Amino acid sequence: MILKAENLSHRYSRAWAIRDINIEIAEHGIVGLLGSNGAGKSTTMNIICGTLNQTEGEVFINGINKRKNPEAVKREIGFLPQQAPLYTDLTIDEFLVFSAELRLIDKKQIKKAVEEVKDKCGLSHISSRLIKNLSGGYRQRVGIAQAIIHKPKLVVMDEPTNGLDPNQIIEARKLIKEIAREHTVLLSSHILSEINLLCRDIIMIESGRIVFSDTMDAFNNYTKANAILVKFDNPPSKEALLQIPGVESVEFLNPSQVRIHYNGDEEMNARLINASAQQGWKLREIGQDKGLLDDVFKQLSSQSNH
Ligand SMILES: Nc1ncnc2c1ncn2[C@@H]1O[C@H](COP(=O)(O)OP(=O)(O)OP(=O)(O)O)[C@@H](O)[C@H]1O
């Protein structure tokens, strides 16, 4: 177990920001921490990485208790906070040497570690540039480089693609996937599709509590909207649709568009297409109704208030 967080709670002055957070992460792959703004993602990550001390609970990294042995734990962790901690008046080379020294990498190994990490993060060709002259995407790469320079087991990234433009996001995702081949990655986002694209497991946090924690596949099954949106040029009656096996209810959104709730049967689309062809309903559009995902979110989020 690379990370184990037990009953973590944190209070800033009076209000509890997180409550009873339990997380277990086995080695390798990318785990996503999903939650809306203020849900408690940064607080959780700052505690895991040792930049904030929890009010209650324990964190173990690779079996080592953070409270009892913070230095040993920090050796196993790389952290990219929401605001990358960059000295912008330094060049990339200078900054990475400085980061390596902070991480107590052996003096003789520093040059090699810097070259390796620059190569991994696609920074070698611009290494003598001042950080302040870099684009957002390259700054983020430098942020990632400082997080992995000491080859930690766990790399924690707080909203790593936030604020990047679409091309930079694609590049950053590629780099994160590469990094996950050698390190376990925990990253946060408030965007579900981001987590869906990158992560093997998902932990959803709302109002400081975990409301869902499982594989991405399990999450997608859970949130699968068992409804289909269909458009007909020659729409059938409600009764005719209800006769199709598996259809549970039928909602006409307008005279030609229907939302069909069904029992989750995978053959449902095929059955609708066949019925339409046989009975001349002239099916024009058919697709899964994703609008219901919002309802699932509300349902998951409201659990955190109980
Ligand atoms: N230094 C602080 N002092 C007091 N309250 C804080 C502090 N930092 C965060 N909070 C509160 O704790 C709660 C959790 O905040 P946190 O930053 O962990 O959430 P988040 O999920 O990371 O959100 P965001 O994506 O907006 O950063 C929020 O209600 C926030 O207002």
UniProtKB/TrEMBL annotation:
> Which UniProt key words apply to this protein?
ATP-binding, Nodulation, Nucleotide-binding, Transport
* PROSITE patterns, A to Z: ABC_TRANSPORTER_2
What residue range is the signal peptide? none
InterPro entries listed in its UniProt record: AAA+_ATPase (IPR003593), ABC_transporter-like_ATP-bd (IPR003439), ABC_transporter_ATP-binding (IPR050763), P-loop_NTPase (IPR027417)
One protein family per Pfam: ABC_tran
Q: Where does the source fall among the domains of life?
A: Bacteria
> Which residue ranges does the record assign to the ABC transporter domain?
3-232
Q: Which GO terms describe its molecular function?
A: ATP binding; ATP hydrolysis activity
| PANTHER family in alphabetical order | ABC TRANSPORTER ATP-BINDING PROTEIN (PTHR42711), ABC TRANSPORTER ATP-BINDING PROTEIN NATA (PTHR42711:SF5)
Q: Which family does it belong to?
A: Belongs to the ABC transporter superfamily.
The name of this protein is: ABC-2 type transport system ATP-binding protein
The species this protein was found in:
Pseudobacter ginsenosidimutans
> Which lineage ranks, top first, belong to the organism behind this chain?
Bacteria, Pseudomonadati, Bacteroidota, Chitinophagia, Chitinophagales
